[in-house]
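notes to self, project folder thing:

trying the whole complex as one job this time. last attempt i did each chain seperately and stitching them together was a nightmare. two parts in total, labels are on each line so i dont mix them up again. if this works i'll redo the older ones the same way
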Amino acid sequence: MSIIKYILDLGATVMLPIIIFLLALILGEKPGRAFRSALTIGIGFVGINLVIGLLVNNLGPAAQAMVEHMGVHLNVIDVGWPASAAIAFASKVGAFVIPIGLLVNIIMLATRLTKTVNVDLWNYWHFAFTGALVTAATGSLTWGLVAAAINAAIVLLLADWTAKMVQDFYGLPGISLPHGFSAAYVPIAIPLNKLIDKIPVINKIEADTDTINKRFGIFGEPIVIGLILGVVLGILAKYDVKGILNLGISMAAVMLLLPRMVRILMEGLIPISEAAKAFMQKRFQGREFYIGLDSAIAVGHPAAIATALVLVPITILLAIILPGNHVLPFGDLATIPFMVVMVVPVTKGNVFRSILIGTIVIGVGLWIATNVAPLFTQVAAEAAFKFPTGATEISSICDGANPLTWVILQIMRLF
Amino acid sequence: MVSMRKKTILVACGTGIATSTVVTEKILEAAKKENLDVNIIQCKVSEIKSYAEDADFIVTTTILKDSFGKKSINALPLITGIGEEQVLKEIIEEIKK
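result (full assembly):
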């Protein structure tokens, strides 16, 4: 046991490559390829750490200055899903999440509790994230692992439950979406959609997808969002012109660089992911099952894009006007499609309704993200991500604002 | 060896990172086996408009409404693993054109 503890205490950039190396060998990968893949993952973490530094060191002081000058208390930086995923995988729960996720899936398939074979190993980070928050809140690694397993099980059930709807709406036969973030919004969207059915006038409104995609197209380009937000924040922080322009370019850089760094992590994970896929498909072939994939495969749908584009400015506005919110939306303004991708089929592609539901879940989500910010920051610090001490807290919309994550966290805290 | 212009492929998915990285790696691997050199641009589906001009054809794992006059290949089988060979063959043929 002391060896395991020693490895866990080495820090994410060392610990995870070791675990990935061993896991790849167990899944039958050649040592050379396993080593390369493990090393690549370590490099990905180093890269993400550098870019988070760039983000927090630039945006942090600007957010503080804005608080002083404007009285707008948005001092929790939304670091976005790339950073959240890295932090989750780098946590102690993250070290175990792949075997745990696979095990939960295998048990549920064997007992016929699920039809979904979740081959989307990358998105196991959502379960690790929940587990990491629980561990930070309870001080217990065991409870964190239990929380991750529960989250994985719930998401499989949600994937089964929504499979028919997703398959019909998006034209994806044989596929389900066991996505920790996207699927979490379905149980909320269904009652809200029924409620909208009952409101006269509102229940008749449709929005034109093409017009929205043309008018709001700019919100689909992360680097442009980064530039604009950087410049606007610079102005609100009363920087001089040089400072404003520099902040603009730096924030555009973060929007491009952070996902690029995560891509390195992804590359490292591919051999394991492929090996696990082959293993699972061999074991459960011949049965009727759904292949569980990343909801990224559906976000290209025009109705999902249109909904997400309109929600970008709405999110920023909500962040400013909502009392009690301290989250400064940034990194996850590019992630909103994932929030709505499984809501859109619930409304049968009605963009107006999807926007309405999106506005509600984002509003509540900002409170949740504010609420988990101290824990989020603690988890990040423990995973050895660099922060300027004291002043800045971080959170994210994906998964800092995830209602399912939050509910699991609150329940586990009772123990 | 017939001299060919190096093709540029636009690989798009929902994030520009997740599934498109898997697809990119598989295309590069398949192209290498055939001794083909390709250029790959990875992007989000909402960014296709900005990059389409530079691409010879588009490979995507998600739903594509407008391919901006370029040929597009759906690479979802590369993610599910079902029908993978067929799609890779189609992509290689497109590179050789």
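what i see at first glance: The first strand of chain B starts at residue 7 and ends at 13.
need to look closer tmrw
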